[in-house]
Write a structure and sequence with these properties.
The protein is mainly α and 152 residues long. The protein has 6 helices and no strands. α1 runs antiparallel to α2 and α1 runs parallel beside α3.
Length: 152
C-alpha cells in the first residue's frame, strides 16, 4: 500500500473513533446533564477541546510514524486498542448510562494509554512527549467517572 493510502487509513481511523465516540456521547448527553457532579468538575467546554487536541495529535503522530517507517505492528495494535476502548467507554458511559461499567472500561483505557506512550517512547521520544496528554486526560476522566459513579 502506498504512503497516501496509509496516511488516509490512519486519518480515517482517527476520524472514525472520534465520530463514533461523539455519536455515543450525543445519545447520553441529556442524561449526563442531570447527574450530580463533584464540585471540582472540569468545565464542560474543556472536554471537547482536549479530545480534539488528542485526536489531532494521534493523526499527526500516526502520519509521522508512517512517513518514517516507524509504525510497528505493536504501535498499530496499541493505537487501535486505545481507539476501541475510547469508543467502548463512550458507549458504556453515555449511551448505556452505566457509570460502574464505564469506570471499568476507562481504567483499562488509562492503562493502555500509558502503555501506548511508553511504547512510543521506544520509537520516538518527541511523539511520546507530545502524546502524554492522552493518558493524563484519560486518568483525569477516570477520576471524574469514579466520582460520578459514587455520587449517582
Amino acid at each position: 500500500m502506498g504512503y497516501v493510502k496509509k496516511y488516509f487509513c490512519a486519518i480515517a481511523g482517527v476520524v472514525l473513533v472520534a465520530a463514533m465516540g461523539s455519536v455515543f456521547v450525543g445519545l447520553g448527553i441529556k442524561w449526563f446533564g442531570g447527574l450530580n457532579v463533584p464540585s471540582q468538575f472540569v468545565p464542560s467546554w474543556v472536554i471537547p477541546i482536549i479530545w480534539t487536541i488528542i485526536y489531532i495529535l494521534a493523526g499527526v503522530i500516526l502520519v509521522g510514524l508512517i512517513k518514517s517507517d516507524k509504525l510497528s505492528k505493536n504501535l498499530r495494535i496499541l493505537f487501535v486498542v486505545n481507539g476501541i476502548l475510547n469508543v467502548l467507554w463512550c458507549l458504556t458511559f453515555f449511551a448505556l448510562k452505566q457509570t460502574q461499567l464505564g469506570n471499568i472500561v476507562i481504567v483499562i483505557n488509562a492503562y493502555f494509554a500509558c502503555y501506548l506512550v511508553y511504547a512510543l517512547s521506544k520509537t520516538n521520544k518527541v511523539y511520546a512527549a507530545m502524546f502524554t496528554i492522552h493518558p493524563i486526560w484519560v486518568c483525569i476522566a477516570s477520576t471524574l467517572n469514579t466520582c460520578l459513579w459514587i455520587l449517582n
